[in-house]
Amino acid sequence: MDVDLFKAIGDATRRTILDELTEKDGQTLFEICGRLTMKHGLTSSRQAISQHLAMLEQAGLVHTRRQGRYKFHHIDTSPLRSIVERWPIDREEPNP
Amino acid sequence: MIRINITSVFVDDQAKALEFYTEKLGFIKKHDVPTGDARWLTVVSPANPDGVELLLEPDGHPAAKPFKKALTDDGIPFTQFAVDDVYAEVDRLKGLGVQFTQDAVDMGPVVTAVFDDTCGNLIQLATMK
Question: Which residue among A28, A39, A70 sits closest to B108, beta carbon to beta carbon?
């Protein structure tokens, strides 16, 4: 599980996909591809993006939902909680 | 000089398509000629009635439906129409019950949205900035 999670967020394109799903949850593959190309200048193929999404889904960070004839991708950040459970974040120290 | 006079979209039912493309989208019927079991059925934009015609073409060929399905499965629009203001057009069409797979999104030089034409296609709306 952790291996999939760290591998999933260890790639810049996949992190950008998560950024875009954070901005607007529930996107078709086409919309994700469009955002990566038009907003981020990424030129990955549709197949490559599809594989990125499969890895994110495997890590539990993305869920797909079928609605009629279309498939939407949704972000799920809950697996990230395992990171801070493993390495807790200290309370913020006040500035000296 | 060569120029584009017609482009087409594959529809599963021409009568239903004509209704959607005229009553919801706002195109005007241009040609409606019986051709055997189908019609040569075209619509045009009221902004340019003598401009490019859109042929509402039957999707009866065995290759057409799998092609349309494959595009729709990935959310890919078949073609694009221009509007003055995508945001306003999305609101207007949603008010008429049109389903969108992508709301208006600012993509940099262009704002786009994607809707279902009820005839088996996704269509993109675009406003160039």
Answer: A39
